[in-house]
Structures are given as C-alpha cells and as structure tokens.
Design goal:
Strand 11 and strand 12 form a beta hairpin. The protein folds into three domains: 239 residues, Rossmann fold, CATH 3.40.50; 169 residues, Rossmann fold (3-Layer(aba) Sandwich); 72 residues, no CATH class. Helix 4 crosses helix 5. It contains 17 helices and 22 strands. It is an alpha/beta fold and 503 residues long.
Length: 503
C-alpha cells in the first residue's frame, strides 16, 4: 500500500528556469518527513504546487492511492493539505482571531447567520492559541506581534482546519529555543493523531531530531530518499550541495584597527534604554539575545528608522546627526534587515533595480539612469555572490529565498559602506549559501569594513564574532571577547534580570 500523499514525476518550468524536473516525493500518515535542499533546489516550488499556488507542467499527485487534481489553493484546502509558508501569510490590521479564521469565519446561528460571531471566534481562537503556545490577547492586531509570535499564529491557523497533511516551510526560522521546543511538541502530537507532517528546514540539527525520513532535492531533481536514523550529517550535506563543504563557518582573521563607531546611552520608544557600545574597523561585532531582547530595535534607532529618545552617535570620533535612513547611508552605514521580503526588497521589481536601489546616484547622471552602469554593478554582484538568476531582468519575487537575500546584501554593498549591519543574515538560507555569506563577511572585514551581526544562532555568533554584545529586554547586559565566550555564558547573561558588571 502506498503513502498518504505521493508525488510522481512532477515537473515545473518558469521562464529560463527548470524549477522541478521529474520529482518524486511521499509522506505517510503519522510521519514527519523532511524536505531538504539548498535554496533554489525546488523545495518552495514543490510546496506551492501542492498548495495549488503553481500548476505542475507534468506529473501526478496521489492521495491515499487515488489521483487528485490540485489547480487552486481551494483544491489543496479541500483535500486536507495545509501549508505554513516561510514568508508569513497574515493580514496585519486584522486581529489574531480574525487571521486564524480568515476565509472560514464563524457566524451567528439562525436568523443572525449573516453576522460574524466574534465571541465564538475569540473563544475558539484562544483554545487554538494555547495549543500553539501563543500567549496574547486574540483581539490584538497581528501587526503588533513579533515575528516569532506571527509564526505561532500560522501554526494556530493550520491547527484550526484539522488538516490531514501539514507542510511547514522553515517554521522555526524566527522562533526562540523555547518556542521551537513547543513547536516540536505540537508536531509530535500531530504525528500521534495520524497527521502527515512535511518539515522544511535548513537547520540540520532540527531535521535529524524531528524527521523520520528525508527527501533531498538538488537543482530541481530528487537526489535521495533517506531514513534519518541511518544518515549522517556529512552524507546529507553532500547530497544537498553535490560536494563536500568542509568546515561550515569560514572566518578569516582581519586586522582590527581604530574605532569607527561609538554609540552612547542610546534610547528609543521601542523599549531601548541606555545602550552603549563601540565598533572597530575590520571587526565583526555580534549581537546576541533572545527574540524580543531589543537587538533589532537598537539597529533601527542607529540607522534612523526609529526615533531616538536619548543618546549620541559618533563616527570617527565626531558626533553625527542620524534622523533617517538617508542620513545613515550618507555616513556610510548599510543595513540588511531581518525580514527581506517586507523591508529589504521591492518584490515587483527586477534584480537589477533592487541591487541599485540604494545607490542610484552612482548609476545615474544628471537625473537619468545609465543602463550600462546599472548592468555593470548588478553583474559584478551576481558573479561575486553567486546569485542564481536567469537574467538581471528576473523579477525578484521569482527567486528563491537565499537568492533574494543575496540581492539584499548586494544592494547595500553597492553603497560601499564603512559600517554594515546584518540582521539575521543567514536566516532561512541553506548551508552552502550560509557559507558564502560567512566568507563574504570575512572578506569585508579584511577590507576594513566594520560589521555588526545579529543572529539567533549561537554557533554562528561564537564562530563569526570578534566581540559579542548580549541584550535582554532592551538593555545591554554584557559584553564578551571571542576567547572567553561560550553558549553557556551568553545564555547566562541573556537571562540575567539585573545589570551586573560587563565582562
């Protein structure tokens, strides 16, 4: 007897790209199957075919042994397939409860059935939120939530429809360790109740922990079906990338020189209080802390996105006035944000337009864009960062997540920054692309660029940082040199409730 869901010979082509090439895949009831591969391997395309977002060019999908047609999201939904996409699908100005039941609104009984039943909606949403580990008012607007809490709303949505098959695309990418543990408990409960779970992640430790079997894609092809318990990490990586990567973290030691940036007593309305630090040329300064600790908010205030309520910023020892991102750019600061699709890209524009968006003066003359300059700048970054795109005119929304991230990084490198802020630069990126980003960071540091890196992966913070600032609830709680830092020390400081001496 076959599996609950089977895919045979599935192919999908976009202009200039063979996204899927005769792919096979299966998952059974009560099983967690990992869908693994580099960015651009075809994982997102396969998911979108199963979700009814894309229609396959050829191939067959079987549910419980019977062929089914999935041509629209409604087809997928009616077959009991639910997808939690990596880029969250929520309406910001609606409440948590309204988002959970969007399109399936609970209505009043009897003659009042044309009216929404807000009381029942709120009550049922509260129950689902508890199952998903989300502790907030269901009437709160989703736009007020952190990324991690928005992710939990997506989990609650999937739980609300009692799906037979739940596909989770990078579900832990914005979650804390505690929230990830809660998600794994939810997955185990789903598995025990007979739900088939497809788990997509670049975090291999999580893959080996939660998945029963693995399907590996590379360059749009299915290259392996593995039993997790019989598979090594090195074997999986070789299948994913087609080569042996060696050491994951690549940090080339740079010559750290004089101070380029000083931040004194920084405060903002976003809960930041009395944050001070400095940054040197050629240095990678890591910012660690739990989700919600204020790391991103510090950088938003530094870059002029959020208003500062206190504090002083000095560059090369001189006070500077930064009240907007344009001020920050003028002072040689670049900022790769956490949410690439919302804050980093214009999705309807092409690769070339996005790469040059922050450096238009350099590619224009007398107010007119010079095509040759745009093409030259974009081409150099496509080559330098190995951006996989059929052309510079490819619309960015059609690229994989990893290649979208490389476009965002290229946009800021095109401004020739002296100071580069990287907020979760490798979130949702495969191991090969992650290594490329780490290598690029080291190269920039060797060229005297001063780098601030925010990361929720402590292994990344420890491997790539020369010094580490630890945040908790909007305050700087400690600072560690690379030689003295460890995961235990960082977590001890991150959970510290009172300000103590800074190491």
């Amino acid at each position: 007897m076959g599996s609950m869901l089977e895919v045979h010979g599935l192919s999908k082509r976009f202009p200039g790209v063979q996204a899927l090439d005769r792919v096979d895949f299966d998952v059974d009831a009560g099983e967690v199957v990992g869908l693994i591969g580099e960015n651009g391997a075809g994982k997102s395309t396969l998911i979108k075919v199963l979700a009814g977002v894309h229609r396959a060019d050829e191939g067959q999908v079987l549910l419980n042994g019977e062929p089914v047609g999935i041509h629209t999201p409604q087809d997928s939904f009616s077959l009991g397939i639910s997808v939690i996409f990596q880029e969250l699908n929520l309406v910001g100005n609606l409440s948590v409860a309204e988002n959970i039941f969007l399109g399936r609104e609970l209505r009043s009984p009897g003659v009042l059935r044309s009216f929404l039943d807000f009381g029942r909606t709120t009550q049922r949403a509260q129950q689902l939120m508890q199952q998903a580990g989300l502790n907030c008012d269901p009437r709160l607007a989703v736009e007020e939530l952190s990324l991690s809490h928005k992710q939990m709303v997506e989990v609650a949505k999937a739980l609300s429809i009692n799906s037979k098959i739940i596909i989770m695309d990078e579900p832990t990418s914005t979650l804390t360790g505690q929230e990830t543990e809660l998600l794994f408990q939810i997955i185990e409960r789903l598995k025990s109740s007979g739900v088939a779970v497809v788990f997509v992640s670049h975090k291999l430790d999580e893959v080996f922990r939660i998945c029963d079997r693995l399907h590996v894609l590379r360059d749009g092809r299915h290259v392996g079906a593995l039993q997790t318990a019989r598979t090594s990490r090195d074997e999986l990586i070789r299948l994913m990338v087609g080569r042996d990567l060696g050491t994951l973290f690549v940090k080339q030691e740079a010559q750290i020189s004089d101070t380029v940036l000083e931040v004194r007593d920084l405060g903002s309305p976003k809960g930041i209080e009395h944050v001070s630090f400095d940054l040197h040329r050629g240095e990678i300064l890591g910012f660690a802390g739990l989700v919600g600790s204020g790391r991103t908010e510090v950088m938003r205030a530094l870059f002029g996105i959020d208003k500062r309520t206190s504090g002083e910023i000095l560059i090369d020892g001189r006070p500077v006035s930064i009240h907007s991102p344009s001020d920050a750019i003028a002072h040689g600061i670049g900022f790769v944000p956490e949410d690439r699709q919302v804050q980093g890209l214009v999705l309807g524009m092409d690769v070339r337009q996005n790469v040059t968006l922050a450096s238009l003066q350099a590619v224009s003359e007398r107010g007119f864009l010079i095509d040759a300059r745009e093409q030259g700048v974009t081409g150099s970054f496509i080559e330098k960062l190995s951006i996989r795109t059929p052309s510079q005119e490819q619309i960015v929304v059609n690229l994989s997540g990893g290649n979208q991230q490389k476009v965002v990084v290229s946009k800021w490198l095109a401004t020739n920054p002296r100071i580069l802020i990287l907020d979760e630069p490798t979130r949702g990126i495969d191991v090969g692309a992650k290594k490329e980003i780490h290598r690029l960071m080291s190269q920039l540091a060797c060229q005297n660029v001063a780098i601030i890196m925010i990361s929720s992966e402590l292994s990344e913070i420890l491997a790539m940082s020369d010094r580490i600032v630890v945040m908790h609830e909007g305050r700087k709680k400690g600072e560690l040199d690379r030689a003295q830092a460890s995961q235990e020390k960082i977590m001890e400081i991150a959970l510290r409730q009172t300000d103590q001496g800074v190491a």
